[in-house]
Task: structure prediction
Amino acid sequence: MTKPFRFAVQATRATSAAEWRDLALKAEDLGYSTLFLADHYLGKGPASREAQWPPQYLAPISAMATAAAVTTTLRVGCRVFCVDYHVPGALVKEALTIDLLSEGRLEFGIGAGWSEPEYRAMGLDFDAPARRVTKLEEVVALFKTHSSGEPLDIKGDFVTARDYAGLPLPVQRPHPPIMIGGSRKRVLSLAGREADIASINNVPFEPIDAAGRTPQQEALRRLSFIREAAGDRFGALDIESSPFFTAITDDVATSAAGIAKMVRVPAEGLLEHPNVLIGTVNAVTDRLSERRETFGMNYISVQQTELDAFAPVVARLSSK
Result:
């Protein structure tokens, strides 16, 4: 079964209440399914430069609630919450409160964290990957149990919730859609088993990576982890991907050359990279259809800067 296309925009750059409200309304009007925030906190400074991540203006929870309050159909989420940046029980209750108050429009993205400079800047310990993924597993279990309304009795290595039942109960049953993303087998297998949306992180830009795989082969490898773990439920999953470089343009050669210079790879073949989406509206719609067939990618997230330019693609492909 081919899953229909959905499109999201990820935004954090609004610097006023009016700008944020207007952006949410515009995303809804243009047909985007979801408005995502990011769970990053650094403003301008050495830590932001070290993390190689742009300064973040908006924190996700309050911005998600505001966006939901001024729209009627737009879904809201965070791509993705970091398990170490929040007290698990508090994060789950905040998220399910948004689902209740939005009348069922939350998507709960959750991940194991990755930015060691950001951890360090905020005074957090950056545990080994295995420990962070174990915590992720426990937070996902807490989210599902809290959503059920049953008494909580969880005592894990990282998550404790006992002697109370979760409130509020979500509008979406049995729970709001869970998004889990990553690049390695353990996290992608968790997504296959437990998530409703499996997000495949950007693959390397080198024509051949250290393991001898092309970007396309690496994307297929990651998809195989999800498929194997999901089993019979694979066809019901959304496979989410965010093109790292997106441009709706007639001047493909110039755009490709600029990207090639930035990431220090040859321009030849770059247009076929799973995280590059450059071309006219017709070319981009065709390429997305091909990638859905090859990589299963039906849920596409673009950055705030592409909101307007990408809208014709959204109009042409949404729900198809």
